[in-house]
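Worked example (supplementary).
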Amino acid sequence: MTVDPVTVDPAAFGPSRTRGVIALVEESCTVCMLCARECPDWCIEIDSHTVTLPPDDTHRRPRTDAVLDRFAIDFGLCMYCGICVEVCPFDALHWSPVAEYAATSSDGLIHERGRLVSWEATVPPRSPLDPRAVIDDPGPRRPGVRS
Amino acid sequence: MSALAAAVAAAVPGARSSAGFGPVTVDVPRERWVEALGAAHAAGATFFDLLTAYDDGPTGVAVVAHLATPDLRDHLLLRTPVPAGDPALPTATGVYRGAAWHERETHEMFGVDFPGNDRLDPLLLPVGFGAGPLRKDFVLAARAARPWPGEKDPADSGGRVRRRNLPPGVPVDWPEATP
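After joint prediction of all chains, the assembly is encoded as:
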């Protein structure tokens, strides 16, 4: 029994913070490897390579950029601790409440990049900030801090 | 102090009781284990809750039994050290028959032998597995056999390796350092 991530109603899977499956926003991933290194179960596999970009109008020197080749989470090993979601500095990983992705073999629980990206549609919207936490006027910039 | 613990401490020579955050713990010498269980039973602790063990460092393991009165008004932990060189403890099944299953599990996970209990068949592990997986000196085969996914680094793709990333919590020279 599988669900179509595009048509599923995430609200049918309980509260928005339910830990159902982890979604990947691949545009946000910088291949920093923090999630794979923090994972206690070693269930995240990442492959990547670097490309050298030539100088352009905004960069005066050639620079290297990491390109994501493979991102896979083995939900047969995952213990749903959420450390990878917490540790991601660029919010590339999100919890989705969808929990119906049972498989008939353990290989079927390894979600590759495309499947992880497809879960993004089921991630509930972020709850708004508490009004008291919103700063309208950040005030004078602290000395020595570059923006 | 618990009346049960007081009764056991008085009946068993060499017993020492201490109160922690949980129930009172009575430490008894290994050779007086069955005697202490009998004293607890005679004092009213006829409800056998559990028997298990924990790794107590290089000296060996400690076996713990949780016993209570049937009305659950009083309870105690009975604890005895089992040295690593001779991991054997007389069976508790003569006093509490229900301990058989717990001893089976403790035998499987900690390698403690219980002379007198002849049904120590493994519950989860294959026959002849040997080592006790819940002992701290047990090498996790999955951690040794499988390369750590976090070792990869995007900067290594050009063929140069700047540094070796090591998995947290796993010793550097492991598993060679452990027998």
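Two points are worth noting when inspecting this output. The beta strands of chain B are 16-19, 24-27, 47-55, 60-68, 75-83. DSSP finds four helices and five strands in chain B.
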